[in-house]
Amino acid sequence: MSTPTSAVPVRAMLVLGTRPEAIKLAPVARAMSTGTRFDPIVVTTGQHREMLHQMLGLLCVDVRIALDVMRSRQQLSELTARLVGELGEVMRQQRPDLVVVQGDTTTALAGALAAFYEKIPVAHVEAGLRTGVIDNPFPEELNRSLIGRIARWHFAPTPRAAQHLLDEGVPPEQVFTTGNTVIDNLLWVLGEGSGTSAFRTGAKRILVTLHRRENQGDRMRGMGRALCRLAERGDVEIVLPLHKSPAVRDVLLPELEGRTGISLIEPLGYVDFAATLAECDLVLTDSGGIQEEAPSLSKPALVLRTTTERPEAVDAGAAQLIGTDPDAIVSTATALLDDPAAYRRMARAGNPFGDGQAAERVLAQLDEDFAADVPVTLASPRPYSTA
Ligand code: UD1
Ligand code: UDP
Fold it and tell me: What is the pTM of this model?
């Protein structure tokens, strides 16, 4: 593959399919579109139809190619196969100089794999997150590990994530600690202002999101019941923007619809979600991105999962990993709502995920490598350590 000279824009294909990928690649797309060095080619896969659409305004870049890979209640194997096939076709037509993927979704894995088959180097944004448990979260832990074997550039959000990659034998010259682009986006959106919070009352405000596959079914039903018990206190307002996944709705709607103190609402656009997060008192979530955003806004987060790939927030004291047991959810949330000193300790713990400059660091590194005399190859000339 030839390397573009500094006079010719680097054609960077950004592949994204789900809500968090759009949110976290938006700062990269925006930064690429402000100069002449990069030509961002945004490809959406359609993995999240409605929820992705809500986020596209953040990109400030036109979507160049929109695929439509989702089928009703499609299995992961079918989704992966369709994505690799269709993305491979797009890459053959477009011949980008690099492909950028973010995180650990099926779109991200398929984008990296298709690029590898087309011999196009891959940049991985939010690289190196690990729980160490291959099926938790499912399938994300496997997805991000596999992308880690494919990528040419590993943009790790934190030193710990970078260390995971080094421990796995990735050559150090391919690993860059940048901060998480989610913080870039959150600061940008709050700076723009104008979001509307979904909270309506002066009660204690709890923001909840649930969607993880490993929590779906009985576990999620139990979490729903825990929310009902919290609402019975009578002094809380629980707002839950319901993920579009039918597996989430089928469980939570029958448990929670019509309950006093609980507002089930449609997913919020990012600007309104940021305003809602900024107004809440407490976050209960199994989301990855929200674990990163909450500490930035001094909001204690209770993580409703048994593992987390974001232990930095837990270590800092800004989040607690409390698992999925309904009694633990009720007792921990109650303790925080009723103990101002414990609440303050969490709220003041700080944000370990970045300073809002992550996308600039990603672009600076790519620029440097594409400007160098040596051609950019699929992988670094140095082999993976096999020790
Ligand atoms: C996906 C990602 C997960 C990420 C999450 C963010 C995979 C395997 N999972 O999980 O890593 O944390 O997104 O939200 O990549 N649906 C719609 N419209 C939408 C969104 C979803 O109809 O706007 C439906 C899909 O058609 C599908 C179901 O929801 O039937 C589940 O979607 P899917 O993308 O497979 O998994 P998520 O659980 O959303
Ligand atoms: N989010 C949003 N609207 C909502 C719920 C979440 O904009 O109604 C944003 C949230 O701010 C975060 C991202 O979506 O940046 C997280 O997405 P999700 O929880 O779906 O995925 P995960 O981060 O777990 O992969």
Answer: 0.96
